[in-house]
Amino acid sequence: MMPLDVCAPYPCEYKEAKTSVIRTTDWARRSREFFISQGNPKKQLQFGIIQGATFEDLRRQSTEEILSVGFDGYAVGGVSVGEPVEEMFKTLDWVMPHLPDDKPRYFMGIGLPDQIVKAVGEGIDMFDTCIPTRFGRHGAAFTSKGKVVVRNGEFSKDMLPLDESCGCIVCKRYTRSYIRHLISSGELSGLRLVSYHNVYFYLSLMRKIRAAIKENRYDSFQKEFLAAYGSELEPSRV
Ligand SMILES: [Zn+2]
Fold first, then answer.
1. Would you state the pLDDT for residue 206?
2. Whole-prediction pTM value?
3. Range of 28's domain?
4. How far is the CA of 84 from the centre of ligand 1 (A)?
5. 42: which of 55, 64, 218, 223 is 20 to 30 A away, CA to CA?
């Protein structure tokens, strides 16, 4: 369960970002007090949200304030609002060292597969994103070798599946050229097949991430994934 927060836009003036931190902390306090006063009959977890836009001192202030309220988990919010990806990861540099290891940490609204892999390396546990289906609706598939925009003409005779290393039903049954044909003929089933594959890709990526952490080999998993994916992101030091 998340309290209401104020997500400042990008770019935004310092004053606006500061106001968003003040209001977010105020709402966090009131919401935590109410949550506790109700006795939590449904055994839910309530998370605090850290704001502060792209300003280091505001991110630190927000982190301190939200930690002082005390929540069951902590979320880094106000990211993925149009800022460059380096700015997004700078936020983690400022915030993550201060969050407790024994509470789940959630990066709100992230993200692309390589961003998820890097953020986990920085200590993030949870994500939410519309990307798998949004990209699917635009005919773009995620694969272990990066993004494949299957609606493009170059795939009109491509007899490979969306991702050769994927075990989903779409990759077992359909070729890129057939899916492209469906999309270019205006058949919605084409976009549906790509979305299905993308959701499957994300779920299996998260499974691989959990296995790599459990087996204490996240560092090498991250490097291999980012290299194969063709990511421009630097692997984080785990
Ligand atoms: Zn697939």
1. 98
2. 0.96
3. 14-129
4. 29
5. 64
